Amino acid sequence: MTQPLLPCVENTPSSTPDACVIWLHGLGDSGHGFAPIVPELKLPGSMAIKFLFPHAPERPVTINGGMRMRAWYDIKSLDFESRADLDGVEESARLVEQLINAQIDSGIPANRIVLAGFSQGGVIALHLAPRFNAKLAGVLALSTYMCEPSLLANQANDINKQTPVMMAHGEQDEVVPVFMGNAAFKTMTENVFNATWQTYTMQHNVCMQELNDISAWLQSVLS
């Protein structure tokens, strides 16, 4: 039985959209958290891009004393190797895959869809995109890391090996240390994915220079 589509905050262009960006938030946030970023990107009005900011399901989070909050997966410990709960990651990846497929069914082809994610959302993006069965326009992985990187070699789908993957991280990030993001980048490149890496003088957030770079990158992959 197919689960209902994730609820989303939706930002639609004035004309019929021919591209879509699906942007996944971080732990304890919601789709409303990143929705205000759209005007900050200052994309040309001629680009008919729909932005979807889905809400993660609510679930107990172990490191927060079992408190229920919006989370793409449980975090049982802050240990580098076991921070992300694989079962939860795979469950959320399936939900996001449904959302992508719904956009394809609506008439936006996969190669006009960008999958973006910040922190926990980036973990889902980096898990789903390399395994997805259709070529995407691009992947944006911000201040994030990879769940079970050792699995990628056997599970990767070649179809997105040339898809641009922009990976970015704050040098002073105390939530997801920069070495975790760089390790994910190295795993992507070792598995021959088309990933780039850049850092910014910031903590676990986004900054104006990063937004400018994201805007330029989106214009490149969706031109």
From TrEMBL:
InterPro entries, sorted: AB_hydrolase_fold, LYPA1-2/EST-like, PLipase/COase/thioEstase
Where is the Phospholipase/carboxylesterase/thioesterase domain positioned along the sequence? Answer: 13-220
Record keywords, A-Z: Hydrolase
The organism's place on the tree of life at top rank: Bacteria
Give the similarity note: Belongs to the AB hydrolase superfamily. AB hydrolase 2 family.
Q: Would I find Cell wall biogenesis/degradation among this entry's keywords?
A: no
Which GO molecular function terms does the record list? Answer: hydrolase activity
- What Pfam family does this protein match (any one)? Abhydrolase_2
Organism listed in the record:
Alteromonas genovensis
SUPFAM superfamilies hit by this protein = alpha/beta-Hydrolases (SSF53474)
Name the chain's protein: Alpha/beta fold hydrolase
Bilayer-crossing regions? none
